[in-house]
């Protein structure tokens, strides 16, 4: 798959560390919700660094929407979250990945389990579901450190028939929140209509440790491992 020259055409700050970037990518053939792209930067001395980023929105045009959360000490994410401006250029290759994908023709229930910026591919799925007007029931369980770290929380919390949302805060909960800060537990993943017997499609995305813990909880609840699709990320 060839590399395409991409031009930054828009940016938007989402949290203190996360930023949305919209790229114009001539020759990009569009993507399915859940797919990702490789982004490559080249330094003046010729040194190159490549990182994979999930697409925040799917479609069939030459536009790429990324949400990048800064990795302290990283080579690529600090540039994308702090320095990239409209008119700047990077290289993009993709779309990549055919396994971690939701198809809007699938009417079955979908359980999405996100850790931090692992919510990004699920934004693409939620937006595709909304655009298609499909009645497939969705449930999103999103674990974040604090309300300030929740990417696109306002959009996610917008009432949407057939969508259930559960937030889990690990370090700081909002004032008046009914539960103290804690890690993900099995009860968070249990809901009527989204169990192993409901033919539920399950997707889990986030840091490696989070995804491994979530997958253990999900299979412990009886979800067949073959129906639990995972995508994980970590330090380079």
Key attributes of the depicted protein:
iron, five-stranded parallel sheet, Rossmann fold, Elongation Factor Tu (Ef-tu), domain 3, globular, 11 strands, six-stranded antiparallel sheet, 236 residues
Identify the strand order in the major beta sheet: 4-3-6-1-2-5
CATH fold naming of the largest domain: Rossmann fold
**Rg over alpha carbons:** 18 Å
Give the proportion of residues in helices. Answer: 10-25%
Mean pLDDT score: 94
Low-confidence stretches: none
Protein structure class: alpha/beta
Largest sheet properties: 6 strands, antiparallel
CATH class of the largest domain: Alpha Beta
| CATH homology group of the largest domain | Nucleotide-binding domain of ferredoxin-NADP reductase (FNR) module
Structural domain count: 2
Strand portion: 25-35%
How many alpha or pi helices? 4
CATH architecture grouping of the largest domain:
3-Layer(aba) Sandwich
What's the overall geometry? Answer: globular
* Count of distinct strands: 11
Distance from N terminus to C terminus (CA atoms, Å) equals 22 Å
Order of helices and strands: EEEEEHEEHEHEEHE
Keywords: 2Fe-2S, Iron, Iron-sulfur, Metal-binding
Organism: Isoptericola peretonis
Pfam families: FAD_binding_6, NAD_binding_1
InterPro entries: Cbr1-like_FAD-bd_dom (IPR008333), FAD-bd_FR_type (IPR017927), FNR_nucleotide-bd (IPR039261), MRET (IPR050415), OxRdtase_FAD/NAD-bd (IPR001433), Riboflavin_synthase-like_b-brl (IPR017938)
């Amino acid at each position: 798959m060839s590399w395409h020259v991409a031009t930054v055409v828009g940016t938007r700050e989402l949290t203190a560390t996360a930023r949305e970037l919209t790229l114009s990518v001539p020759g990009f053939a569009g993507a399915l919700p859940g797919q990702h792209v490789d982004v490559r930067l080249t330094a003046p001395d010729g040194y190159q660094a490549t990182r994979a980023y999930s697409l925040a929105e799917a479609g069939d045009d030459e536009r790429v929407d990324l949400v990048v959360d800064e990795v302290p000490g990283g080579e690529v994410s600090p540039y994308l979250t702090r320095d990239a401006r409209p008119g700047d250029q990077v290289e993009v290759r993709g779309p990549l990945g055919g396994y971690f994908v939701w198809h809007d023709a699938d009417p079955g229930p979908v359980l999405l389990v996100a850790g931090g910026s692992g919510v990004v591919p699920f934004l693409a799925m939620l937006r595709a579901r909304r655009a298609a007007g499909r009645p497939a029931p969705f449930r999103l369980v999103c674990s974040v450190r604090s309300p300030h770290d929740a990417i696109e929380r306002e959009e996610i919390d917008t009432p949407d028939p057939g969508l259930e949302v559960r937030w889990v805060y690990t370090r700081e909960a909002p004032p008046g929140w009914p539960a103290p800060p804690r890690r993900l537990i099995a009860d968070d993943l249990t809901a009527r209509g989204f169990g192993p017997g409901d033919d539920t499609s399950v997707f889990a995305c986030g840091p490696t440790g989070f995804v491994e813990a979530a997958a253990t909880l999900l299979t412990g609840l009886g979800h067949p491992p073959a129906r639990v699709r995972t995508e994980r990320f970590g330090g380079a």
